[in-house]
Amino acid sequence: MIPSSRDELLRAPLFHTPRNPFRETSALESHTDGGLLIRAGRVAGCGDYEALRNAHPDVPTVDMRGGFLLPGFIDAHTHFPQLRVLGGLGRSLLDWLEQCALPEEARMADHSHACRIARGFVHALASHGTTTALVFGAHFAPATAALFEAGETAGLRIAAGQVLSDRLLRPELHQKPEQAYRENSLLIERFHQRGRSMYAVTPRFALSTSEAMLEVCQTLLKEHQGLLLQTHLNESVQEIAEVARLFPWASDYLAVYERFGLSRPNAVMAHDVHPSDSQLDRLAASGTSVAHCPCSNAALGSGLFPLRRHVNAGVRCALGTDVGGGTGFGLLKEGLQAYLLQRIAPDGMLLDAGHLLYLATLAGAEALGLSGETGDFRTGKFADFVYLRPPADSPLAAVLERAQSPERVLAAIFTLAGAESVREVRVEGSIVFRAATAEEA
Ligand SMILES: [Zn+2]
Q1: Distance 393 CA to ligand 1 centre (A)
Q2: Is the alpha carbon torsion for 84, 414, 319, 301 positive or negative?
Q3: pTM of the complete model
């Protein structure tokens, strides 16, 4: 991490969505000759370059024309132990968990292995332009600590927690509820609100957590201020049937979490592919957010996400990559996949580039309770951003030569840009990733 203390005026075309395009028109703001003024790690101004330069003639300009500035991406759902199971195609959720994910999760008991995977995972986030992520840790406390430490070393904003389960997975992944309480209390004391880290209470899903374990989650949330909660909800039809069998007293899947006070603001539930209207209304009323993971939903055949029903019910939605059920770390790819699936979903929404940028940035900040700090370039927010510049001979570079409008440019970025276009990533103005390029070598 390279600290940045001096004021800078970055000059490049820029895009951000300071408003929610599902609720307001003109949510996308862009400046073709843009300026982003950074002071002490925060945005001190965002607008047209010439106006900012005239207002701040003493601040040095960094000329970044040829590329684009976007707010840092926010991944609202991902699993660090699953880095190496990406690409396990051809299975459905419960079979995939058993055959691909859980054996790899068990390897996190080996601490040196966990440290290595944690470093690789955090590097992958940064190199794809992700500056903030809500991450499922490991079932083991030391491996979860390794993730926080890797995140701090890299300078990323990581919210994470030890994954809690006490049944139906495999014995080495289970904790006793008392042990979970003890280990979580220590992790919270050590990492919650230390630097850029935040702690998220993380019951894996209702299937693998007894009522006693869910009660531990409730207790932890009561005992500590500002914790997040993350879990899974309504991902596949088979999973939903199993939850109904295991919790016969619950009217539906969400009711299991509600019984223990887990549906609440700063709670992020991944997937929700198969909700009832009642569950959508209750999610909205409680302020719970949903992490939509379209690559994962398609790869595991979980189903088509009913985005319009979420939006109409007033449920806040953000984007998650769901590594490793998903297909990689890129929030741009995830945004494109959200667009593609909405094109073919019954009653799908026609999303534009502004919707995609919002879902990949500010929506995630809102879900994590960080919308006052990050997610767009409004003055006062942290200078968390990604600088994209397509390789000179790439299809994206060719498309951008003749793209006429900012919306068209942003749509092309979502369609064609991958990690090869990510040149620099900063959190609070400090560089957390910089690509070594052939042109600079
Ligand atoms: Zn997941």
Answers
A1: 36
A2: negative
A3: 0.97
Listed residue (427, 423, 405) closest to 64, CA to CA: 423
Both tokens assigned to 377: 């370039």
The DSSP line for 32-88 is TTEEEEEETTEEEEEEEHHHHHHH-TTSPEEE-BTBEEEEPEEEEEEEGGGGGGTT-
Give me the chain's average pLDDT, please: 96
Q: Ligand 1 mean position to 263 CA, how many Å? A: 17
Distance between CA atoms of 351 and 336, rounded to whole angstroms?
Answer: 10
Q: How many angstroms separate the alpha carbon of residue 253 from the centre of ligand 1?
A: 16
How far is C-alpha 51 from the chain's CA centre?
34
What pLDDT is stored for residue 235 in this prediction? 97
**Could you tell me the distance, in angstroms and rounded to a whole number, from the CA of residue 196 to the centre of ligand 1?**
23
The pLDDT assigned to 379 comes to 98
Question: Distance, CA 177 to ligand 1 centroid (Å)?
Answer: 22
pLDDT tens digit string along 380-421?
Answer: 999 999 999 999 999 999 999 998 899 999 999 999 999 999
Closest CA to 382 of 432, 314, 341, 321: 432
pLDDT per position as a tens digit, 52-100 = 999 999 999 999 999 999 999 999 999 999 999 999 999 999 999 999 9
Which of 10, 72, 9, 13 lies closest to 400, judged by CA? 13
Kindly state the tokens that stand for 328.
């990689």
Amino acid identity at 112: S
If pLDDT is split at 50, 70 and 90, which confidence band does 352 have? Answer: very high
Contact 304, 341 (CB under 8 A): yes
Report whether pLDDT(51) > 90: yes
- Residue 115 C-alpha to ligand 1 middle, in angstroms? 21
**Residue 166 alpha carbon to ligand 1 centre in Å:** 17
Please report which residue ranges of 173-287 form alpha helices under DSSP H. 177-191, 211-223, 237-246, 253-259, 277-286
In this structure, are residues 81 and 143 in contact, taking their beta carbons and an 8 Å threshold?
yes
Ligand 1 centre to CA of 78 (Å) is 6
Strand partners of residue 132: 74, 157
Cα–ligand 1 centroid distance for 348 (angstroms): 23
Q: What is the distance in A from the centroid of ligand 1 to the CA of 269? A: 9
Span from the CA of 175 to the centroid of ligand 1 (angstroms): 19
| Each residue's pLDDT tens digit, 228-237 | 999 999 999 9
